[in-house]
Amino acid sequence: MDRPSSYLAIDEFGRILENEARINDQDRLQSLFENLHFSDWGALISNTNDQSYIIEAFEAPWVIIELKFENEKVIGLNTYGFSTILELNTCYFDEYDRLHGYTDKNIPWVLNRDAQEFFFDHLDEFDDNGFVYKGKRYETEQTIAPTTNQSLIVSTEAHSALKDMLPRMKLPKSRVLILGGTPADADHWRNEGHVVTTVNTTDEIFNLPRSFDKSFDFIYENGFFASVVPDRRYEIFQIWNRCLLQGGYFMGLFLITSEKQGPPFGVSEWLMRQKLQGNYHILFWGRWKNSISSLVGKELFILAQKK
C-alpha cells in the first residue's frame, strides 16, 4: 500500500486542521479519530472512506476535556465529544505533571487541566509513583534507560532541511556547534565556509569545557536529542543556552513520536515549544515534508534565534 501523500494536523486542543483551517464535518472527523493508527514505520495515520492521511499531532491526538466512569472503565471525551477508553495501566506524568496514557487502541491521550482535576477528585488516593482507582493501584510508567550513548544517525547524506534552509540565511562565516548529525552534515557546513565543532556522544555533551560558553554563532542539532534519556533533557536545553551567543541561531530536527522507551526517544511539539519560547524567537516551525522514508511524518524542523 502506498504511503499517504496528504497531511492533517491536530492542534494542542485536539482539533483537526486541514491547511490550517478547522474541519467541521462531524462524520469525517469521527471517521478520522476512529481510524487513527500507527503505520509500519511509526507515523500516525488515519483515513476516511476515500483518502488516507499522515496525522501531525502537536501533542497527543486525543486531548481529553471530559471524563465519564463506567464501572471499572474510564471513558475520555475530546473537544468534539467523541469518546475513547483510557487504559489506566499506561498512565505516566510528564515533567509538568500532566497525565498522559494510551487508549485501548494504543493511541496517545493527554488530559487537559479540568479533566485532570476531575480525575484526581475521583481517585481513592495518589502519590508521586502512582494512584489507586476503584481499589486497584496503577503505577505511573517510567522511561527505560538507553542501551547506547551514541547519537541517532539517520542518513549518510546532509539533511535536506540543512541544504534547503542554509543558503537562504546568507550567514557570514560562523562558529557552528553540531550535535549529532551525519559526517555529511558537518562537511556541508565546512563547505559553506564555517568553522565546525562536532559533538557525537552524550559523554561528550555532558562534559563540555567552559571554553564553549557563549562561543558559538550557530547550533545545529540532528538526531542527537533523541539519544538522550528524557530525564536529562533539561540539561540539553541549558547547554544550548550556555553555548549560543545572544542573537545566535539554533537549527534542529526532532523525532516527534509518543515512544517512552528508546533510544530513539520521541518528544512532542508541545514540550519543545514550552522549552524554547522563553529564550528564542521562532523563525520556522513545522514538520519537514522531505524526510527520509523512515521519518516521514515524524520529523519536526525548528529554526530559532536566541533572544
Overview of this protein structure:
This protein is α+β, with helices and mostly antiparallel strands. A hairpin with a 5-residue loop joins strand 4 and strand 5 (44-47). It folds into three domains: 7-57, duf1285 like fold, CATH 3.10.540; 62-139, duf1285 protein fold, CATH 2.30.270; 160-306, Vaccinia Virus protein VP39 (Rossmann fold, 3-Layer(aba) Sandwich). 20% of the residues lie in helices and 36% in strands. The strands form four sheets. A six-stranded mixed β-sheet has the order 3-2-1-6-5-4, with helices on one face. The protein has a six-stranded mixed β-sheet with strand order 7-12-11-10-9-8.
Measured between the Cα atoms of the first and last residue, the distance is 46 Å
List low-confidence stretches.
145-152
Number of strands: 21
Task: Report the CATH C-level class of the largest domain.
Answer: Alpha Beta
Q: Strand-and-helix sequence, N→C?
A: EEEHEEEEEEEEEHEEEHEHEHEHEHEE
What profile does the largest beta sheet have? 6 strands, mixed
Derived structural class: alpha+beta
Tally the helices: 7
The Cα radius of gyration reads 21 Å
Query: Which descriptor suits the 3D outline?
Result: globular
CATH architecture of the largest domain: 3-Layer(aba) Sandwich
For the largest sheet, list the strands in their spatial order: 3-2-1-6-5-4
- Level of helix content? 10-25%
